[in-house]
Structure formats: C-alpha cells, structure tokens
Amino acid sequence: MIASIKRTTFHRDVYEPAEDSFALVDALVAHQQTWQHSPPRLCLEVGSGSGYVITSLGLLLQQLGMAVQLLATDINQQAAAATAATLAAHGVWRADVVLCDLASALLPAIEGLVDVLVFNPPYVPTPDDEVASGGLAAAWAGGARGRRVIDRLLPLVPRLLSARGEMFMVAVHENDPAELMREMEAAGFEARVALQRKADEEQLTILHFKRQQPHFPAKRPKMLSV
C-alpha cells in the first residue's frame, strides 16, 4: 500500500506528485522486503513537497509491522503544511514536519541517526538566480546542471546517516548520475542504480547509496608447534 493521490494535498504552490515521485516510490517498494531483515528506526525526506513520498514510505513500513519515526523537511511553508495534511489523511501519525532548508534545523540533533533518507531534489537545469526564488520554483529549479541543491545536500549525508543508513535519490541525465555515484563512493558509500525510467523528455534515475560495511580479513589458523 502506498499513498493515494486523492488523499494527497497539493495546489499551485506545492509540487504535485509526478513521474519522478512515482519512480522514487517504486524504488522504495522494490526495496521493502530488505527492511524486514534490518528494520529502520528513523526515516527522513528532505524536500517533501506534497508528502506523497514520505507518506508512502511510512505506509510501506507500517505494512511490515514497524513503528518507525518519520521526519520531513521543506523550505516552502505551504509544502510543509501539505505534507502534514497528507500524512494525517493516511493515518500516518509517527511523523514530524519541519520547515527548514535541507536538514539545517535537524543537525546536530539527528546526526548519525537516519536509517533511510529520501530526496527528490530540484534537478532541472536553470539559471542560478532561480534556485533561491522561493515558492513552487524551489521544488524544481536546480541551477547549473541541476546540481546546486544536490551538491549542498550530499556533503551532509555522511553526517545524517546511521552506520547502516541508506539514501534513495532522484537524478536526471543532466545531473550526471555517474559522477554523483563516484562522489559518494569516494565518501565511503556503496552506490548503485536502483531504477531507471523514461518520462516524457527526462531520463529518470533513482540512485541508492549505502554506507560501506567494513570487511574483516579471515583469521589464519594458528600453526601448532610440536
């Protein structure tokens, strides 16, 4: 079960669920069974918009019988209100919505505690001055290469994620997903493409980043002296 569009709040100043939202949720659905073996405790969506994605994530985890704490942030006050309304309309109550830029109001309080981070960034290449224009534009205007907001959040990911934390993020061709993967690998994460989908003129890619787990070499048996 995922969020219902009919019970999702959006209007002209709030980004409505679209193909990128659906692709991100589909990637979460495909990953759902993995959480049975490693239940997340804290999930965060940065830039929640209508709340469709974080609500869907909450419902997926509820289906697994998990009482997970959800957090959502948005810089747009109307989007934050829409997220809260969407969560409530679906009966997802263990959730808090915070009005802030990225995760600025949450650090250092949740440093190293986020098990699942989801991010549908403003990825459309635009002039840089549109990035800070506010309102609905904040949901899609990404500046040069559509990377201005992406490049601000990714350095925060190592601080946000727990030791077993993982991140799902939307990217398009213009954002250079391969470069994003290399950057996260250099920061100590495993990186993979979770899903790819063609939507209108966009090539949507859902990237999955997970902390690299330490690998300990097998111990050699001690030689017995006789």
Automatic annotation (TrEMBL):
<dbReference type="GO" id="GO:0008276">
    <property type="term" value="F:protein methyltransferase activity"/>
</dbReference>
<dbReference type="GO" id="GO:0008757">
    <property type="term" value="F:S-adenosylmethionine-dependent methyltransferase activity"/>
</dbReference>
<dbReference type="GO" id="GO:0003676">
    <property type="term" value="F:nucleic acid binding"/>
</dbReference>
<dbReference type="InterPro" id="IPR029063">
    <property type="entry name" value="SAM-dependent_MTases_sf"/>
</dbReference>
<dbReference type="GO" id="GO:0035657">
    <property type="term" value="C:eRF1 methyltransferase complex"/>
</dbReference>
<dbReference type="GO" id="GO:0032259">
    <property type="term" value="P:methylation"/>
</dbReference>
<protein>
    <recommendedName>
        <fullName>Methyltransferase small domain-containing protein</fullName>
    </recommendedName>
</protein>
<keyword id="KW-0949">S-adenosyl-L-methionine</keyword>
<dbReference type="InterPro" id="IPR004557">
    <property type="entry name" value="PrmC-related"/>
</dbReference>
<keyword id="KW-0808">Transferase</keyword>
<keyword id="KW-0539">Nucleus</keyword>
<dbReference type="InterPro" id="IPR002052">
    <property type="entry name" value="DNA_methylase_N6_adenine_CS"/>
</dbReference>
<dbReference type="InterPro" id="IPR052190">
    <property type="entry name" value="Euk-Arch_PrmC-MTase"/>
</dbReference>
<keyword id="KW-0489">Methyltransferase</keyword>
<dbReference type="GO" id="GO:0005634">
    <property type="term" value="C:nucleus"/>
</dbReference>
<comment type="similarity">
    <text>Belongs to the eukaryotic/archaeal PrmC-related family.</text>
</comment>
